[in-house]
Structure formats: structure tokens, C-alpha cells
Amino acid sequence: MMTTTREACERLDLNDPLAGLRELFVLPAGVIYLDGNSLGALPRDAAARVRRVVEDEWGHGLIRSWNTAGWIGLPQRVGDKIARLVGAGAGELVVADATSVNLFKVLNVALDLTRMAGSERNMILTERNNFPTDLYIAESIARARGVELRRVNADAIPAQLDRRVAVLMLTHVNYRDGRTHDMAAINRAAHAAGALVVWDLSHSAGAVPVDLNGSGNEDEAADFAVGCGYKYLNGGPGAPAFVWAHPRHTATMDALHLRQPLSGWLGHAAPFDFAPDYRPANGIARFMCGTAPIVSLAALECGVDTLLAAEPLGGIAALRAKSLALTELFIALVDARCDGRGLVLQTPREQRLRGSQVSYAHAEGAYAIMQALIARGVIGDFRAPDILRFGVAPLYTRFTDIWDAVENLRQVLDNGEWRDARFGRRAAVT
Amino acid sequence: MMTTTREACERLDLNDPLAGLRELFVLPAGVIYLDGNSLGALPRDAAARVRRVVEDEWGHGLIRSWNTAGWIGLPQRVGDKIARLVGAGAGELVVADATSVNLFKVLNVALDLTRMAGSERNMILTERNNFPTDLYIAESIARARGVELRRVNADAIPAQLDRRVAVLMLTHVNYRDGRTHDMAAINRAAHAAGALVVWDLSHSAGAVPVDLNGSGNEDEAADFAVGCGYKYLNGGPGAPAFVWAHPRHTATMDALHLRQPLSGWLGHAAPFDFAPDYRPANGIARFMCGTAPIVSLAALECGVDTLLAAEPLGGIAALRAKSLALTELFIALVDARCDGRGLVLQTPREQRLRGSQVSYAHAEGAYAIMQALIARGVIGDFRAPDILRFGVAPLYTRFTDIWDAVENLRQVLDNGEWRDARFGRRAAVT
Fold it and tell me: What's the complex ipTM?
């Protein structure tokens, strides 16, 4: 049933129209990097760009660079670029703060809008297996505002969309198993039930097609979204995050002068007037708070630019096709070559339900197996309690990388090297 | 009355025991930089450090660098260093997010602690001329929680400390006029009145002595503090900020498992357990939220290190003495050489009331005068509506810089070049 060989993978790489994009990255020799879903690889341009920001713009331009180097407009400029990757329009998305902080803003605003519409809905509905920080933030908001946070299994969500639900909060691609929600269908169902939908795109943006504006269909459009800059957007460790709101909501906020709770000065309509009272900027700019970390933000722009470089080659659709081919290959190779070795596939076999990663559970040794792989230069990651994650970044992952990764996995399982004591100790970050 | 000459200033530089610290910075030729209170200068080590973080740690270490390069501990490590500059202990202060975001956390916690102590105090008291973002954040919290935000003149604060005040929120050094509060006296008065005190150290940390722990005297100690990384700490544009809580408050929070509202995963007791429920980390670590921007944070560490390099030379006390000598000189030179030209000193003449800047109002032409100075390479800044600010960074500002700055100021005023049309147009950031 499985006849693929390494030679066949080499041919796939040779015929891959996106193969040249790998040259946009610096990748260390001897490493197969399958953790771009946790920290994207270094864009080749980022080192020079960061050097310029530090040495020229900061060192020589000093404070003048806020104007002369355009620092002040960077959150919007990079935001407009990210917008192109997630089906949003220019001026609708801005880079700011961390994902968790942005989630705090939009969840509160979604609840405010619900309440202002005269609704007594008092529940945030979410998925039990959502990324923990999303649950933690929602938990705090629910406590502070006296609303209920209900966590249910993913497949129970449609049935739970009743008249108590104010906000449905979901992550588009699940961080553990890589399962993807049908965003348009869920938005439609939620809107039909009178709820707003907040999406976390951390494991989607840059790897999976997202259509926040529902191609103009408001029923299928999302209401709010946040996402991470350092995964598939390749923005570097702790790169700032992004936040989006549907234009109909920012229009309402404009009309009513609504603020988001973290009403810092850079979300003010005229921050450099230093007025004593807060007056929110129009549009998405009101979701900014303090000063963005410019050095990290400049690196993020380089990361986003690597994705825009794929636009002439088919953009996100082409990246998605390659990503699915890569994950399909991974699953097929494990099926064929690692059978009976305790790996249990967590990621859906159905392509439309799959993000850009493949996850396996291994009851006995998930952590140690991943450590053994990393020692061999095959870098994925472990997620407690028993998950091995292999992320696929179609910009720089090759078909031969998948072959080699699975071959290393097979060897680690077969020769039992993962049982070596040195692989058993958990590091600070796993 | 004023006999100082440029030659006398040269002698002051020659005899300045701190003069060598200027070598820790890259400063452009032909520039007199008096805006370190808005963006600190580039530390010489920062360029190489940032290059290492980007090219080696991110590029080659990739995800492994969270452990191998110590990224995961950086917020605490840099926090411990900042603590030494503000009279706090190791483990009490952490780098996180932006100043405004941190203020949101601590104000909410201060109100929570007040309420949990059974108090019905329902007011945040602050100074009318506080930095606007502090007012904006407090305004949002006051609305959301139904407490009153009262803004009074600085000198009215003691009389306003009645039994309605839950939290007194102040900035230690005012951003406009550079006036400094007596932190110990205010803490004592607020505590005697039953209120908690939240301090913003943005214009203090690194330039003005701060004793958050009140040298062990709880009455005189602060309760919470936040501050900025990119001013006197030289952390680079938009460097992350810091947050501190008095150990007695974190002890209470530990005992009662209290959270701050932005309960993101990196403030969790065990973030990499990915547990479904939030359990705050003990101590100050609970004030973290999302992932810190590591590249910007690494630059901040270099900035903080420039201040620690002054420790063998007398540390903050020695820097403070030089700062006062510099601002004293600035004021004396303007008195003597720019008299009758419309400049009105805003900064207190009394040294104990003065931060590390000198501000003047000029009714007609503050913005244009500053633009004319900047065109001459003397960089201070303008604050609406009519303030010229000259910040003094004792690590790298020389006595001759002060002489030359005032000489340029005198010329700009005397020859009327500030009336040139090209200096009249306001830039995005002023």
C-alpha cells in the first residue's frame, strides 16, 4: 500500500514549485526542523534588518527614528501585511502586545457589544482542549464580569449554541492534535444563534487558509481574531502578536466611542496631544496599548515578508497544498514504517480537518522519544502528557525532510535508544 | 552671578569619575543627545548581543534556545538586575509587556486586595498631570469596576487621602516638568490613611534613586510599581517594561492563590504542563502573561547592564549626583545666557524635587524651537502644548554637552531661526 521511497521524495522536492522559498531562511546544517509551529525559522533578511534597526535607526537616528525610520507606523504596516494572509482588509488588523493580552481585549469588547445590544447572554463558550492560555484569560474575564465560561468537547459546540452564549471563543487549529475547525460554518451557526465568534489564529496564520471576512459574507465572517507572530509567521522568539476586528464592529465602536479595556496611549486618537482624557482612535488602532517592541517587530516584518514572497507562486493556497502533501506523506510513512511501535495518530486523516502538523500519542515514552530525535537533529516537540508534535512549515520543509524524520523516528523506536536515561529528564521548556 | 565658561565645563568632564561610562554607548558624531528620557542611547554591547540572539540563538539554536540560551529565564534575570536599581530584592521584579499593561495588572490587584480586606474604599486617587497613559488605564479600570478616579493637583494629594481612597497611583518623576515626589513620605501618608500606593517609575528607573522596599520599613515601602525599559534603562525602542509588587502582597496572593487579570500562560505555576485550569505562579512571576519579545528583551539586558557598570563607581547615588550637577548647570546657564527670551522654567529649582530633566515652557514657539535645535544636532523633545524637554542621562551626558546645548538654544532664540517655516510642521511623534 505504501510504495514511497526516499528517491520519490527527492523527486517531489525537485518538482516542488515552492522549493526555492527555502532559500529565504537560514537553517542550520544537520537539522530537520519540524517545530515551526512553535518557533518559526530565521528569515535570511531578518539578521540584516535587525542590525539596521539597532545600529542605524536606534544608534544613529535615536528618537528621530520614530518619524524618519517609520517606527510609529510599523504596527499598522506589518498588520496590513498579515491581513493579506488571513482574509482581512488593509487597516483592519494591527500588531500589538502578546496573543493573550489581545485575547483579553477582544473578549471584553465582544461582551461589551453584546451587553450594549441589550442582550442578557452571559456565557463564553469554548472548547475544552483549547490552548490553555486562552482558557486562562477567559477564566479571568468570566470571574471578573460574572459570566459563565463553558468548556465543551469540540463536537458538542453546535448543540451548545443557545441563547445564553454571548461569545464563542475557539482556536482555529488545535495546538495538540492539529484538528481544524470549519471557520465559515461555525461563524454561520454562531451568528444564527446570536453569538459573536472570537478566533485564535496562532496555529493557522501563515500555514492554513483563513478567511476572516468570509469573502464579504457577514454571516460567515468572524467577529474578532488574535494570533501569534512567532510560529508560522516566522517573527522570532516572542514576536509581538496581532489583533483583528470585523469592520462592522470597529464601526460600532467608532460611532459610540467605545474603548477596549487596555486603553493605553498608543490606542488614543491623538497620543502625542497628551490629552488628559482617553479618546479611542478610530478603527483597529484603538486595540493598541503601549509602545511596541520595535526590534522584535522589525524581525516580525521580515518573517511575514517570507510568506508574502509566496504570493506570486500561489500564496497561501499553494502553501496549503504543499503542507497537506507533507503531512499526508508523514502519516503514510509512519503507517507503513512505524506500525506496531506504540504511536497513535492524533491528527485527523481527513485533510479538511488537518492543520499544518502531525501529532502522535505514545503512552510510554513521548517525551523521551522526542529528546532522542532532537539528539539526532530532528526537532519537533513534546506536549504534556504524551504527545509528539511534528510541525510542517511549507515555506522551508522538504519532502525529504519528512522521509528522513520518519526514518529517524523508526530507528529511535526500533533500537530503543529513547530508553536511554539521558532522554528522560524534562527541560524547562518542553 | 554666573561665571561658568566652556573651559570650566571641560574641567568638570575631565574630573568626572563617571566620564568613562560614556564609552559604553554608541553616540553619533555631531549630536548632543538630551532625550534619553524618551529613548535611551544604544549600548555598545547591544548590537553584538542582538546579533548573537538572532543569528546564533534563533537561527541555529531554534526552539532549543528556550533552554540552551536561557530565554525562558530572561524576564526574571533582567528583572533581578532592574531590582538593584530601584531598591527591590531579587525575585521581586519581572520584565513583562508594556508599562500600560503592567499598570492595568497592578491597579486591578490593588483594588482586589482592598476589597478582600473587607474595605469599601472605592476610589483611585491620582495626580491631574500624571502621564496620560496612566490616566487612561485608570479611567478604564474605574469604569469597569465602578470605582471613582479622582485627579487632583500634586500638592492636594495629602489632604485627599481619606477613607474613600483604595489606591493612590502616582508617577515618581513627572514627564513634563520633571517634578519628583517624595516616595517614602507619600507611602507613609497613604498607608497611615489606609491606602495602597502604585508607582510608575518610567522617568526614574536608572536616573533617580528609588527605594521601593523603603529599606525594610513597610510603612515607607511602596506597594506596587511599574516602569519603562526604553528610557533611562537604555533598552531600545519599545523595550519591554517591568512590574514589581511588595513581597507582603505577593505573599498574600500566594496564600490565597490570587491571580492578576491578565492571567496568561507564562504566569502559570507550570506553563508547560498545559493544565486546563489557571494556577498562578508564586511571587512576582504571576505577573507575566504571554511570551516576552526575546530580541528586544536581550537588548534591554544590555541597557540595564550599562547602569550596573556604574555600581563600582557609586551606582545610582553617584549617577544622581552627576545628574543634579548637570541639570543645575543647565538651569544656571539658561538663567545667565537666555534671560528675557520667553523661556519659563518648569522644573523645580529645589534639587530634591527634580528628576533628571529640565523643562521650559515657551508660549510662542516651543515646538519650532525644538525643531531648530534638532536641526543643529541638539536633540531634546517637545511636549504639547508648549514644553521643551531636555533629558539628562548621567551615564553619557557631559558637562560640555550642557554648555553646547544652551549655547545652541541661545543662538536659536537670538537669531530667530526657529521662526523659519520649516520648523513649524509637527511630525507624527513629537
Answer: 0.97
* Total number of domains constituting chain A: 2
A389 is catalytic: yes
Write the CA distances from A51 to A59, B53, B408, integer angstroms: 10, 11, 32
Structural domain including A407 reads: 6-42+315-423
In a domain? residue A330: yes
Using the Cα atoms of residue B305, residue B306, residue B310 and residue B316 in order, give the sign of their dihedral: negative
CA angle A381, A386, A387 (to 5 degrees): 40
Please report the beta strands in B254-398, taking only residues with DSSP state E, as ranges in sequence order.
344-345, 357-361, 378-379, 381-383, 387-391
Q: What is the DSSP letter of B280?
A: B
The CA-atom distances, in angstroms, between B218 and each of A108, B116, B187, B284 are 36, 20, 9, 18
- Residues 6 or more apart whose CB falls under 8 angstroms from that of A397 comprise A33, A34, A36, A326
Say how far apart CA B296 and CA A97 lie, in whole Å. 13
A289 grid coordinates: 496599548
The 3-state DSSP class for residue B226 equals strand
For B249-252, which contacts have Cβ atoms below 8 Å and span 24 or more sequence positions? B249/B109, B249/B113, B249/B223, B249/B224, B250/B92, B250/B282, B250/B283, B250/B284, B250/B286, B252/B113
Task: Tell me whether residues A278 and B139 touch, CB distance under 8 A.
Answer: yes
Residue owning grid cell 506589518: A78
- Side chain identity at A179, as an amino acid letter? R
Tell me how close the Cα of A280 comes to any Cα of chain B, in angstroms.
10
Question: Which of A63, A139, A151 lies closest to B379 in CB terms?
Answer: A63
Reading the block at residue A221, the C-alpha cell is 465572517
- A248 as an active site residue: the answer is no
State how far residue B423 is from chain A, nearest Cα, in angstroms.
Answer: 14
Choose among B418, B51, B430, B75: nearest CA to B264. Answer: B75
Tell me what pLDDT residue B408 has.
98
Cα–Cα distance for residue pair B23/A352, rounded to 1 Å: 59
Going by C-alpha positions, the residue among B100, B261, B104 that lies closest to residue A288 is: B100
Residue in A65, A276, A289 nearest the CB of B101: A289
Q: How far apart are the first and last CA of chain A?
A: 35
Is B230 a known active-site residue?
yes
Whether residue A327 sits in one domain with residue A288: no
Burial A164-198 (b: 16+ CB within 10 A, else e): bbbbbbbbbbbbbbbbbbebbebbbbbbebbbbbb
Choose the final residue of a domain: B306, B325, B347.
Answer: B306
pLDDT tens for A170-192 read: 999 999 999 999 999 999 999 99
Beta strands in A222-374 (DSSP E): 224-227, 242-245, 344-345, 357-361
Note whether A62 contacts B46, CB cutoff 8 Å: no
Is 90 exceeded by the pLDDT of residue A286? Answer: yes
Note whether A98 and A199 are same-domain residues: yes
Q: Helix (H, G, I), strand (E, B), or coil: what is residue B178? A: coil
| Same domain, residue pair B110 and B215 | yes
Cα nearest neighbour of A134 on chain B: B264
Cα distance between residue A413 and residue A402, in whole Å: 16
Domain boundary (A306, A325, A341) is at: A306
If you count residue pairs, one on A and one on B, with CB atoms under 8 Å apart, how many are there? 280
Please report the pLDDT score of residue B421 as a whole number: 86
- Does the beta-carbon distance from A238 to B429 stay under 8 Å? no
Q: What is the mean pLDDT of chain B?
A: 96
DSSP state letter for B40: P
A121 and A15 belong to one structural domain:
no
Q: Which of B252, B251, B239, B242 is nearest to B287 (CA)?
A: B242
pTM: 0.97
